[in-house]
Amino acid sequence: MDTRAATARENLQIILDIGEQMLSSGAEIGRVEDSIERMCRVLGAEAIECFAITYVIVVTISGENLPGLTEIRRVDQFDRNMHKLTLLNTLSRDICAEKIELKEARIRLETIDQASASSLYSKMFIFALISLSFTIFFGGSIVDALVSALIGVLIAPIDQFLLNKELNRFVQVFLCAASAGFLSNLAARIGVGISSELVSIGNIMIFIPGVIFTCAIQEFFSNNMLSGLTRFTEAIMLSLVVATGFVFVNVLLG
Predict the structure, then answer these.
(1) Model confidence, pTM
(2) 32: containing domain
(3) 147 shares its domain with 128
(4) Rounded to whole angstroms, how far apart are CA atoms 39 and 36?
(5) Are 45 and 2 in contact (CB under 8 A)?
(6) Do both 73 and 104 map to the same domain?
(7) Cα 12 to Cα 34, 88, 103, distances in angstroms
(8) Of 98, 115, 132, which residue constitutes the final position of a domain?
(9) What is the pLDDT along the chain (254 residues), one digit of tens a residue?
C-alpha cells in the first residue's frame, strides 16, 4: 500500500471513530451517516456510500486522487451521553469547515472521551435524584423518597462495577434491578411506614430505557425502519429485564 492510500485509510479510521462514538452516544442514524459523508468529502472523496444501523457502520469512498477504500466498524458500546454527542457534533462541524486537520481531530476526540466520562460521584447524585423525584411523583412520602434516594446512591457503584466487568448489558441491568429490589424490601422490613412498592418505583426509573425508546420512534419517522425496530426491541427487552429483576427478588423474599 502506497503512502497516499495509507494516509487516506488512517483518516477514514478517524472519521469512523467519530461516527462510532456519535452512534453509541445516542445519535440518530441519519445524523451519523450525514456527518460521515460530509467529513469524507473533506478527505477528498467524490463518491461516498455510507450505511449505518444500530450496531454497524459501513463506508466506501473513492475519488480521482483517492484510492477506493471500504471500512466496516462494529459498534458494541452504548452510553447514551447527550453531552458527549454535542461535543462530537461540534467536532464534526469543525472538520467539515476545515478548522482543524483530521490528525488533530484524533487528539480532540480523545479529550472529548475523557471529559465526557461521568464520575462515580456524579452518577450517585443522578441516581439519587431520579429515585427521589419519581418516588414523590408516584405518591410516596418524604421518608419513602429519602430511602429511595439512598438506594440510588448504593446502586450507582454496583452499576459502575458491573460496567467495568463488561458483562452482557441485560445481565448487568438484571443484577442492578435485583439489587435495588432487595434493598427496597430490606428497607421496608426494618423501617416503619416505608412502602417497598413506592421506593422501588423510583429505583425502577433509573433503568427504564426512555432514551432508547425515543430514538426508536425517531428512527421510524426518519424511515430507518431496521434501526427503529432494533432499538424498539432493545427498549422492550431492557424493560422486561428490569421488571424481571424486581419481581424475582419480591418472589424470592416472599
Answers:
(1) 0.80
(2) 3-115
(3) yes
(4) 5
(5) no
(6) yes
(7) 15, 16, 11
(8) 115
(9) 567 778 888 889 999 999 999 998 888 888 899 999 999 998 888 899 999 988 899 999 988 877 788 999 998 877 778 888 899 999 999 999 888 887 788 889 888 887 666 788 888 999 999 999 999 999 989 999 999 999 999 999 999 998 888 788 899 999 999 999 999 989 888 876 688 889 999 999 999 888 888 888 988 888 888 888 988 998 999 999 999 999 999 888 76
Cell of residue 87, nine digits:
461535543
If you write DSSP's letter for every residue of the chain in order, what string do you get? --HHHHHHHHHHHHHHHHHHHHHHTT--HHHHHHHHHHHHHHHT-SEEEEEE-SSEEEEEEEETTEEEEEEEEE-------HHHHHHHHHHHHHHHTTSS-HHHHHHHHHHHHHHTPPPHHHHHHHHHHHHHHHHHHTT--HHHHHHHHHHHHHHHHHHHHHHHTT--HHHHHHHHHHHHHHHHHHHHHHSTT--HHHHHHHHHHHH--HHHHHHHHHHHHTT-HHHHHHHHHHHHHHHHHHHHHHHHHHHHH-
Give yes or no: residues 199 and 105 share one domain.
no
CA dihedral 208, 77, 183, 213 (to 10 degrees): 0
Task: For residues 200 and 234, state if they share a domain.
Answer: yes
Q: Which residue has the cell 434516594?
A: 149
How many angstroms separate the CA atoms of 238 and 221, rounded? 22
Do 107 and 191 fall within a single domain?
Answer: no
Provide the domain count of the chain.
2
Angle made by CA atoms 209, 129, 159, in degrees to the nearest 5: 55
End of a domain among 115, 136, 152?
A: 115
